[in-house]
């Protein structure tokens, strides 16, 4: 496994064989070689494709854990750990940043320092430790009801280290196995299997993990330990595949890092630019020509022409990665039931993967022919359309947010109070304040309004009763209080009881409802109220002074509700609804709905996922393909390095906007939509600048080659000595 040559010899050979890092014209690279490296491979495999199958199994398990962890992290922080919305969103994007950071680190060092296989094993171990810490943190919260945020943060860091190491090493190690068994001609199919396996793992994880958490009831209703425990077992299974194949994998020593070499070359050129100020060159990279290969310098010139394309990418990633944070939190305020099907907020992320697979399959039909004969075939146009579609997806999200906020109850404003009239009697009531403000006249209905704090005298008239009557009632409404006026029949007359809550109940935490018990039996009920479902979830509360309980969060189910263990009542609570359960003399319950549940279905988010996925295909995929064509193949790892860096910058932008706390939810969505529209203009400018730079580079190189030809002719006609031909001149390997 150790490389047999000293480092100086290795780097000398690497420089002379530079073009071997991806050049299809291997014969030319071989002709330029001065040192031949003999890479020792170890062949222990007994079955030809077994190493590839084992890596596919590991990839499936790793992707299952990664996508399961990523899709549930926002609700784990917000619902389970009790963090605020902003803190939960920042945690999710911090996880993305750490994954990108460690991936950048591993792209440059790991396979060179410790080797691919050893690095893969090391990061899988870190992965497993992170999964175990994540499971332990969820279990500890469920047992103690006091979350330790430090454990969750530690799990996020460990998992991000594992993701950043395993993801690039698995792909690179798979390429070694394909080369080892001589199946390079089928490498496209194998890589396709790797992609399909990862996508199927993502779909399975996003569907199964939230369903498991929601269907099982643990100590705190939602069973977060069950979902994190399943993910822990899956990553263990993936690691067993690597352990089983440790003697069967072909291990190749990497010659060197193209990224490190490119950075060194650029740094040396910058150093010489300031050191040799009197020396004029065509391009600043030419200052490194005395120490670095001319082909490397030429490829770097072509690479720097494409840097403009990377500039608009962070803005796109800042929108795209909010699918796991803001969009998931938005889904918690939507109705999750679609007929008999229950849809969870974090399961909506599965549409991104489903749409992407459909689009990729659809891409091979007649759409390809249509695009080839239209303006859409130009990468610049495709990317611009994709950028606009990303803005469209956020526009849809903003419209949904407007609907959510319009449906939400107008919460207490400063200087106002709330009063609710509940009339469970069979009589019609008309309640009028002295200032002629009519609350309403309904039968067995809840009537609401918002009033200024003050003393009020109410004139109440009773109609359609055996004995019509009217009377006055004096009440005082204090600031920020929630008052219930409950009518009840007593001795063939109507009376009103007043119950005052210190704070108004609010909609909080995912798809929860809120419920409070209100006793009208005049002290006959003093013991426990129980809300039970499936034999798992049990909520017990005692009455407070005043004859009511606090509002408690409940999950949207049908419950058996019992008073002192008698007379079970089957009641159903919905997402976002706020209910008062009125206890009557016979211990039966009357369910009154104070705040209506959510009405906008969760499927309303599907269009925004559709447009965002289409934007990913037209913008990100098209841009990546365009860069693959423009950047020399040998610098592909440097391209991947910058691509990952733009993803990290995009998530940093989201954190900066969230942490600034200058926008409301709705304004924040509009901000990103407008930012993406402006980014479209920057994208067009970037493509135009890249084309201009590349044409200029091509003209300069063409003039240089013509000058070299003239000098060669003059030398041959005037010199009687033999002519030395410099094979390092890249005449046959120039990308124009």
UniProtKB/TrEMBL annotation:
GO molecular function ontology, one term from the record: transmembrane transporter activity
Membrane topology classification: Multi-pass membrane protein
Compartments (UniProt record): Membrane
A GO-annotated cellular component: membrane
Transmembrane segments: 87-107, 119-137, 149-169, 190-212, 224-244, 303-320, 350-369, 381-400, 609-629, 641-663, 669-687
Main location: membrane
Entry keywords, A to Z: Membrane, Peptide transport, Protein transport, Transmembrane, Transmembrane helix, Transport
InterPro entries: MFS_trans_sf, POT_fam
Listed Gene3D superfamilies: MFS general substrate transporter like domains (1.20.1250.20)
GO biological process terms on file: peptide transport
Pfam family, one: PTR2
SUPFAM superfamilies recorded: MFS general substrate transporter
UniProt similarity note: Belongs to the major facilitator superfamily. Proton-dependent oligopeptide transporter (POT/PTR) (TC 2.A.17) family.
PANTHER family: OLIGOPEPTIDE TRANSPORTER-RELATED
Protein name: Solute carrier family 15 member 1
Lineage: Eukaryota, Metazoa, Ecdysozoa, Arthropoda, Crustacea
